[in-house]
Amino acid sequence: MININGKNISFKGGTTIVNGRIIGGGELGKTKKFDETKIEKARNIKEIFVDSDISYVKFSVSDSSKEVKIHFYGDVVTDGDIDFKVYNLEPELRIVSKLVGSSFRSNLNLDITVPRKMLFKKISIKTISGGIYLTKEVSAKSIKVESKSGSLENYAKFSKYYVDTMSGAINIVAYADNDISIVASSMSGSISIELNNIGDVMLSASSMSGRVRNSHKGQRGYSADIDASTMSGNVMIS
Asked: CA-CA-CA-CA torsion for 169, 79, 70, 151, nearest 10 degrees?
């Protein structure tokens, strides 16, 4: 296996595999379908960790005050399988969706639904290839998002937000009810940050091939400390 620009590339029997996906030669594998739901008690869960190889990950809320619902569904063309497991290690909840083998095409989704008024200490999401989306009413003191390839969108409330991708756009809409900090980094992709209820902004932003624009207008509100950088793409603050 070799690594080129953050992509793991291997060759097996005439097959070229990039980040676990078959992109040329070899057999295309078989289509496998998944539709599994797991429900865990939410009461003592303070931290949620997600480790997913090739699924689109979505966090949303429900009116239930007692449950965290995890729905894994969709299909994938693979020469192997998907290992989907949930570990309730109170106060941690760990959700794992790992590719065993290689994938040619994936249409897998991992939907995680949490109680509407629940404030988590930490939410951490890591993917190899797949987008990540957090809806507006999700709330955590600290959110960490990492992906090698995929668009990353956040509307959740947070105090600290860290996001890093090798290839993909980053979109953050912050609704502050306290001072916040954001660290956003992309090798190839634009970064867009919209600030609501934010007055003072301490900004460090850079792009090697793209524009940097700060159009945020000072208003009454909390402060934001932002570090945003990309090698190829625009950085837009509003």
From this structure: 0
